[in-house]
Design a protein that fits this description.
Helices cover about 30% and strands about 30% of the residues.
């Protein structure tokens, strides 16, 4: 039988944590799409937002490109308040941000892996790339490993330039992917690895607090032909 005094004490001690979970960190004017059938197979506005937060959080390290896996995004968020509890439910794994230098050729290989299952929703992998700092066009009618038709690196402010396979780019991803998770073995070739001090949910919450009104839309960062 549950001890009533202990249960009451637990409830009392849990009140501060409950208040933290219910705290509103931002508001969104649009539905943010993170459901499995979308975020694992196509660019979504929530995927863009999460990737933007990773790039923003590591800007002092001069990161150029962010890549995260759609499978790590676990819920959609309806228009309205965004609470800390929703942030933790959205990104529940405590993955750390990791920065690394990667050649254009290895970045291209990583993106080929990312779109390798995008043609078939019966495949369970969560590797689809949600990105910031670049634009990708992939043709899903092509064989796996030959699907990425073009990659441009940059942003709306400075413009975009075609990926140079011989150049080195500063990447931010999550520790799960940096060690080869979801097939991202190319990331394990990165040099000058740094980070592991901030989780992706912390970065996302901080980004929302700095940008408290969200109206994120799909920007055409990952264009799929013959999907």
């Amino acid at each position: 039988m549950e001890d009533a005094a202990i249960a009451a004490k637990v409830a009392e001690l849990g009140k501060p944590m409950e208040a933290i979970r219910k705290a509103v960190v931002a508001k969104t004017t649009v539905d943010l799409v993170g459901d499995r059938d979308n975020v694992r197979f196509s660019e979504t506005n929530l995927g863009d937002l999460v990737a933007d937060s990773m790039l923003w959080a590591t800007r002092d390290d001069k990161t150029q490109v962010a890549v995260t896996n759609g499978g790590g995004i676990r819920i959609s968020i309806k228009a309205g308040d965004i609470t800390q509890e929703q942030v933790l439910t959205l990104l529940p794994f405590g993955n750390f941000l990791v920065q690394l230098d990667l050649t254009g050729a290895d970045l291209l290989a990583a993106l080929e892996n990312g779109v390798s299952q995008a043609h078939d929703k019966s495949l369970s992998g969560g590797r689809f790339p949600q990105v910031a700092g670049m634009k990708i066009t992939a043709d899903l009618s092509k064989p796996v490993g030959q699907r990425v038709q073009s990659v441009e690196v940059g942003n709306a402010q400075t413009g975009f330039k075609p990926l140079d396979r011989t150049a080195t780019y500063r990447i931010v991803t999550i520790d799960f992917m940096q060690t080869g998770g979801d097939g991202y073995t190319a990331f394990a070739k990165g040099k000058n690895v740094a980070g592991l001090v901030m989780t992706n949910d912390e970065a996302f919450a901080d980004y929302l607090k700095a940008n408290p009104v969200v109206s994120s839309k799909v920007e055409g960062r990952v264009n799929l032909l013959n999907a």
